[in-house]
Amino acid sequence: MRTYSAKPEEIQREWFVVDASGQTLGRLAAQIATVLRGKHKPTYTPHLDCGDYVIVVNADKVRVTGRKLDQKIYYRHSGYPGGLKQISLRHQLQQHPDRVILFAVRGMLPKNRLGRQMIKKLKVYASPDHPHQAQQPKPLQLQF
């Protein structure tokens, strides 16, 4: 029996919506990364982007365990001497809650062109509304 390998024109994409309120950040990000990669489909092909679109709403209500709110630090550098900026998870959730989920999912995707292509299919919103009603997204069943 030969191994099936999907072709780019055979890929069927769907839209899913996930409510992040009360969900644990890492477990939620792992489920979203699986759907973005397409590993939930029987036609999964490692070298192709065969995943689906994911819309995350209520990103500001995501839950973290332990003391991560104060101990987890996000770093960025401007490229200039002394340009290292840092922000704690607590402040990041207050200012840009969408970035928290985006960074968590991006760390679970491949670190190459394929991963950069996959992360573009993730749409994160801090409020319960989103502008993708025309795509008729289905609710994603999360398994924990």
Written description of the protein model:
The chain contains five helices and six strands, in the order βαβαββαααββ. The longest helix is centred in the first third of the chain and has 13 residues. It is 28% helix and 17% strand. The protein has a single domain, classed as Ribosomal Protein L13p, Chain: A (Alpha-Beta Complex), CATH 3.90.1180.10. The model has no long low-confidence stretch (mean pLDDT 96). The protein is an alpha/beta fold and 144 residues long. Helix 1 packs across helix 4 and helix 3 crosses helix 4. The strands form two sheets. A four-stranded parallel beta sheet has the order 5-2-1-6, covered by helices on one side. Strands 3-4 form a two-stranded antiparallel sheet. The N and C termini lie far apart (34 Å).
Summarize the entry for a quick read:
With 144 residues, this protein is of the alpha/beta class. It has helices at 25-37, 68-71, 89-95, 97-106, 113-119; strands spanning 15-19, 53-57, 73-77, 84-88, 122-124, 138-139. The protein has one domain: Alpha-Beta Complex (Ribosomal Protein L13p, Chain: A).
